[in-house]
Amino acid sequence: MLTLELALAGLGIGSIAALAGLGLLVTYRFTGVFNLAFGAIAMATAYLLWQQVHVWHWPIGLAAPLDLLVICPLFGVLLERSVFRPLQRRGASTAEQLVASLGVLIVLLGMATVIWGAQARLDAPSIVPYRQLRLSGRLQVPLSTVVDLGVIVMVGLALVIGQHTRLGLEVRAVVERRSLAELAGLRVNRVAALGWAIGCALAGIAGVLMAPTMRLQPQGLTLVMLETMAVVVVARLTSPLWAIASALLIGVGQAELTRVRVNGSAEALLDALKSNLFVVVLLLALLMLRRLDERAAPDAGLAARLPTARGRVEARAWWLLPALTLTVPVLLSAQDRRTALAVPALAIVLVSVVVVSGYGGQISLGQAGFAGLGALVAGRLAAGTIPGLPRVPGALVLVLVPLLVLPVGLLMGWPAIRRRGLFLALTTFAFAVTISRFVFDQPAITTGVVVHPPDAFGSDNNFYVLELLCLGIALVLVHNLHTGRLGRALTAVRDDEMGAQASGIDVRFLKLLVLAASAALAALGGALLAMGSRAFDPSAFDPILGLIWFAVVVVFGVDSASGAVIGAGMLVALDAGAPSGTSILVIGVAALFLGRLPGGLVHTLSRLVDATMGGRVAAASVRVPVAPTRLTPTGRRALARTLHRPSSVRGAAP
Amino acid sequence: MSSGIDLVRVRAGYGPVEALHGISLSFPLGSVVALLGRNGAGKTSVLRAIDGSIPVASGHVTWRGRDITRLPTHERVAAGLTVVPVEANVFAGLSVAENLSIFARGASIDRVHAVFPELASRGAQRASTLSGGERQMLALAPILLRPGAALLLDEVTSGLSVGAAERLHRVIDELATPQRVIVVAEQYQPDIVRRADLVYVLSRGELAWAGEASELVSGPPPAVLI
Predict the structure, then answer these.
(1) pTM of the entire structure?
(2) Cα–Cα distance between A364 and A100 in angstroms, integer?
(3) Which of A87, A271, B90, B127 could anchor a disulfide with A92, C-beta 3.0 to 4.6 Å?
């Protein structure tokens, strides 16, 4: 009996996850975009309903249909129109589209934080009245579960039937090859808009159903919704039925786990597993599923590439800007200087993203995990509470931290390098979430961890100097990764994995090297971050921050170490000086405009300077003169119309 | 000759790379026009500027007197343009039958099987598993199923066997009516050039030679072709 009751309870959560997964799946299958923003769309819809019901006192019967059937679909159409259509028309890579969806996520997160604050609320309105339905005897099931399941059956059926219709075929054609679909006369924009509208509506429904079962909080709710990606990955981004089945199974499995009891230290682990089964399944599926293919990405190596300023070496003068960024704190008051301690530390973390994404061409959304591990290891090393390791004094900690976290990077990297593009990105993110839930959130591991700057660098001024020293060393090491033989090999792997392999480069080794080096760097940065604030705070290494850090790096130029330093300065300054959420909002908006700034802010700036100071440099714009056109009498007659009729064409240029 | 497709001082390209440097060309209705030139001369770019798959930075494209420079591609198709691009010209992940269904938009697909019986037994096969020549036959389906009043054909004979290429040439001959313009871009294909009423030779994004096919075939070929 108990088993059955738990299973019914699990179906509730499972069905919400299934709805979220179906929303993600629909958008992906209609448009080819893996919409990371769906978690934030779900969160924002839940907040909107809260605002309407609790603040404006609208009847929920009016507000909910308005939000879910009008506002969410319209928002989807707006996204398609303003963000994704320009990218797809330009033939942007998967990675660029992923960054754009990350931009949407971050903007929504920033807006929610600015409008509603970061604190949690417990009174999310429920669209299904709370009532228990009696099945038989003592067995009861909440009405909401029945409603959820009903919605899933309807949506699932519609999707399965839809696949076999003419529309279904056109959708596949559009995703397969947008340009050819256009040439075949299909209304590709309409298909994409429809996909976004349905996807956003489903995300909204999932958010509104999920919010009452947990706390309403911008980052928290977004992250929980993101975890439901697990069901989409298990479904290999194709089968709606698999997505539904796995969602219900995980939901029921999570509920049944509550019956299991163990003693001793395994208890904490089991408790974590009970509330994080989706995360575990996500990570395991990403690491273990044999075949995971992106749609419409025949050349995944190319599809994964982010736009970089190829062939352009950063001019030395550009280092003035980051140098200036790092000098500013010297001029600040003691209070502000303490805040500014975060700049070089964060810069190291961001440079670690440059290494893996800019130089290595892999998307890593999981740097928050490595940074947090670095902070944790630093604290426990200094206290001597890592089993088997003695108490480590002073600055030696900073040498050991990257070395100790590096194997963790290898551990994740080894299975992960089989993946490319989107799936590697998701793996790194799933890894960060797992570390956060199973390590950072465990009191047994993090309670009482104190992180101090090394004794000799106790004062803020001395510690700042130490940080600059670390940053300097990191930059020199990173510079070596980008130049010489190794740098050329890495660039070859980044730009064309197949080609690199064909010319005898050990691609696996290089990818692993890049992932491990970047994990070690992130750990160093994380340790310095914690030392600067003199505490280990799990929320400082929230997985969502990993997404934001990645966006910062892409916005400032994914292969630009100097851009990373400037980005760190801007992020810290905005966090300290502007209302909560502003920095996130700024980064998100910038990420949305990335389609118009290929290569990022730093490269756009340097191009502007080049253009105004020294004429255009792009080799492509150099034209070789062609001999004058030779026209035979027939040729002259044929061209007479176009050559000598300046006024017959409307608006012809003079 | 009545007005078909006209390009007036068109500049177009790919991001920062300009491929067409203010080119003017005329493709009158009732003619077959060959567009020749070496690799990178701008043949494909001209076709793409006409069908709208690359943006025109300045200048105009008109079709039967109507300015279509800013029209979305699918509206140009609706206005009578039928395009067979040089690459990415089939839906590789879809089956042959599904490809034909998309291209046919309701029309009967018998015509494809009549011209290319090779495809008749391949309906359930994924297009990505076809041989190069078979894939090219599939790519030609649009001009067999729903030929518009303007056909833009980019290196369509590449990969076809001699027999299949001859069948294609016969199709082109049948389609060459007074109400239609056919533009064929080729490296140098004597069979196609001989059929052309007008030949344009492009070089580095500009027009290098314009004249009659006979003048090109009889005399020495212009240096820009070799």
Answers:
(1) 0.81
(2) 15
(3) A87
